[in-house]
Amino acid sequence: MSQAAQPTGPTSSGGSWPSRQPGARGGGWVTGGVTFAGVLMMCSGLLALLQGIAAVAGDPVYFRIGSYIYKMNLTGWGTIHIIIGALVLATGIGLLMGMAWARVVGLFLVALSIIAQFLFLPYAPVWSLILLAIDVFVLWALASSHEAAS
Questions:
Q1: Is residue 111 part of a domain?
Q2: Of residues 44 and 11, which shows the higher confidence score?
Q3: Contact 112, 86 (CB under 8 A)
Q4: Domain assignment of residue 42, given as a range
Q5: pLDDT higher than 80, residue 1
Q6: Mean pLDDT value of segment 116-136
Q7: Which of 31, 77, 88, 92 has the highest CB neighbour count under 10 A?
């Protein structure tokens, strides 16, 4: 009688691959997604900080728009992006450090960042779309994590 082929690779007794319990929800790719989301939160926060600094400095890169219902001067938008960017950056660091509060706070801040980037679309359309895409992935990764908060 031959036994079924055993998977090769490190085992949970001394290897580097985590063991997966039968019936466990999620997988390694979701946990990896949360780690990647933490890195992306740090990048997104830093980019929003730079976006805000450029707006406060009055960088001529931004479009001059006509009548827009959410029109605000660039200093106001810059201040909003600096605050949100700093909070997202700090939360991304907390997420990578495994802080329990970081996932819930991250969900809220990334949703707030999505709204801010959407409202900022007329000023910097391509840049806002890039940050929107990053934020949507981060929101998905944080919302689909099945790890128990401890």
A1: yes
A2: 44
A3: no
A4: 28-143
A5: no
A6: 88
A7: 88
pTM recorded for the entire structure: 0.72
CA distances from 62 to 21, 67, 115 (A): 51, 15, 18
Does any domain span residue 35?
A: yes
Q: Which two tokens stand for residue 42?
A: 């740090």
What is the number of domains present in the chain?
Answer: 1
Could you give the CA distance from residue 61 to residue 77 in angstroms, rounded to a whole number? 14
- The verdict on residue 6 lying in a domain is no
Residue type at position 21: Q
pLDDT in tens, 59-88: 677 767 666 776 778 888 889 999 999 999
Residue 16 in domain:
no
Convert the chain into a string of H (helix), E (strand) and C (coil): CCCCCCCCCCCCCCCCCCCCCCCCCCCHHHHHHHHHHHHHHHHHHHHHHHHHHHHHCCCCCCCCCCCCCCCCCHHHHHHHHHHHHHHHHHHHHHHHCCCHHHHHHHHHHHHHHHHHHHHCCCCCHHHHHHHHHHHHHHHHHHHCCCCCCC
